[in-house]
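To whoever is covering the structure queue this week,

Two jobs came back overnight. Logging them here so there's a record in the thread.

Job A:
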Amino acid sequence: MRNFMLATALLALAACSGGADEPVARESGADAFPDQPEPAAVGRFAPQNDCVELPNAKLFFVDLGKAVRDRDANALLKLTSKDVKLDFGGGGGLTTFRERLEAEEGQLWKELDEILMLGCGRDEAGDMVLPWLFSQDLGVDDPFSTMVTMGPDVVMRDKPASTGAVVETIPWDTVQLADGFDPKAPFAKVTSRSGKEGYIATDKLRSPLDYRITAAPAGDGWQIVSFVAGD
């Protein structure tokens, strides 16, 4: 099932622009990159793909998706610059990247699964940025207190429980954290753009400063030049 979801995600990323409280598997990857019909985007920040027409982008995504799906560090490092940036404290390079991929019970692979489900944008230099969200102007003053809802049917409830009454449905949009963010907590208290307060399941929220990939042209292809979180 993970491989099927993996393939489906990158097929969508390849050729298209871009609920509830139950966790949704977000896995990614691809064996092919055929044209797909464009889905109806719901929400201001529903994932889109602005990279599909770039030269050799399809091949890069096929190789990237397969490497992530197979948890193949060697294949992933072949797609990565030797000077890859991995944090804002000077960490980087292929050796460090491999070490981090092998550590933390595979957490970085899970982050890559997530990223590949969320589209591709372009930065001012013309490089590819994944997820697409990071290339967008969210129109917020403080990205550190901002989260984005991950899905077309994400609900805000009046208490931190799945039995709470629905206050508002917030598809792919920004909310502001009211009391900080604990990734281990089941719910986070937030304020929506409409000014309503309530609780959203933690696994339905993503920070705009969460992990992202930047890929730059290299020869006749693309290379990952950074894989970082934070600011």
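Job B:
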Amino acid sequence: MPSPTANDHQGPTSEPINHLIDEQMDQITDPNLPFMEKFGRAALQVAIAVHETEGRGMILGLQSPSSKKFVYVQEEKTAIALWMTAVSIKRKVAQLIEQYDPDREAVVVMVVPPTVQLYRASAGKMDLVEIQEVEQTSIKLPAGVKIKSEQQGQVFTYNFTHQKLGKLGRIVVKPHRGNQAQIDYELADTGFDPKAKQRQEIFVPLAQELMQRIDLGLMR
């Protein structure tokens, strides 16, 4: 199976902000500056700018063997975005977001399996607050939901059905740009159906979590 890349459905996160991070990194020209300090300065400037429209939150970095994605997560959505972490680090992130000065500091969380790293960035500093192992927990399906996977060539499909509601939708993983992959989800086309909203409420959150698991190599 090819190595996955960022998907098009961000769920509780923003669109990728890699280009903003890269732009800020390019403006820092000191060759003697340690990488983490350079990254911290770039992340700080991006967080300050994004805060003006998105409010308090954190920069979340998701790194897999073949890709790296940065997104901005609003304060009220951090627990959902950090589904792969222990409750203790979710609480520390929440506390730090309540305490930090968004005009002068940034909260940065890097998920680099097998670890998750919490940082507090400020001018000239990138302080490590906490580091823990990522929790590779098995996903718990909602009652009545089943998954059936199939493969056609290099395309992997996960089909979701519900005991009472029938087809819910599917996740499709297909080759994209060499050894990477594109991950998308599709709602089942059931035509006019009064239960369509119920199907969507069950399937979409489940699909988004599974897509992140695939993206980070944490699918079990």
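Note for Job B: DSSP finds five helices and nine strands in the chain.

Please reply-all if you pick these up so we don't duplicate work.
Q.
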